[in-house]
Amino acid sequence: MNGRAKMSRIKNLLNTQLVRLIAFTQENGQTLVEYGMIVAMLSIVAFAILTVVGQDVTNLFTGVSSDFQEIENRTP
Are 13 and 21 in contact, with CB atoms under 8 Å apart? Predict the structure, then answer.
């Protein structure tokens, strides 16, 4: 193999690797955006659920806290 053939082969190999690197980078960027969108949607859903049932959850924890305080006060 002469010098030109070697250089051409190296050039083709580098181009192939560059294309793979660009494709990999673009795919990771898309994946990151997709994960970000999933997290945002889950946050919105969690916020909506807590807004709807928030007072019930607060009352539940307040009741449990009161029960623990009663138990603690009964212990000699």
Answer: no
Whole-angstrom CA distances from 20 to 10, 17, 49 are 15, 5, 43
pTM of the entire predicted model: 0.43
Q: What is the DSSP letter of 1?
A: -
Beta-carbon contacts of residue 57 (< 8 Å; ≥ 6 apart)? 50
pLDDT digits (tens, 9 = 90+) for 17-45: 777 777 766 565 667 788 888 999 999 99
Place of tokens 């192939």: 16
Burial per residue of 19-40, b for 16 or more beta-carbon CB atoms within 10 angstroms, e otherwise: eeeeeeeeeeeeeeeeeeeeee
Rounded Cα–Cα distance for residues 19 and 11 (Å): 12
